[in-house]
Design a protein that fits this description.
There is one protein chain. By secondary structure, this protein is mainly alpha-helical. It has a single domain, classed as Tetratricopeptide repeat domain (Serine Threonine Protein Phosphatase 5, Tetratricopeptide repeat, Alpha Horseshoe). The chain has five helices and no strands.
Length: about 80
């Protein structure tokens, strides 16, 4: 995301949320939001998003979705 690369975190957050609301069965925008919150150091928002990802029912299970979930789980575990 160009906004994130330019350090425009609020704009990046808005774009990720918009992407999720447009296609709510996709895990990737939630993953990007969680990574953004972690990078910003916003623990409360990161933990909320990590919980949302953990309870997210994927439309189709794939190794990609499992990897995304595992990465967020690992970050969450190491953040505690």
């Amino acid at each position: 995301n160009n906004s994130l690369a330019l350090g425009k975190y609020r704009e990046a957050e808005d774009r990720y949320k918009h992407a999720f609301y447009m296609v709510p069965n996709r895990l990737y925008p939630l993953y990007l939001l969680a990574k953004l919150y972690h990078e910003e150091g916003d623990t409360a928002k990161f933990m909320y998003m990590a919980e949302k990802i953990a309870s997210f029912p994927p439309k189709i299970k794939s190794t990609n979705t499992e990897q995304l979930c595992d990465e967020i789980k690992n970050i969450r575990t190491n953040s505690l």
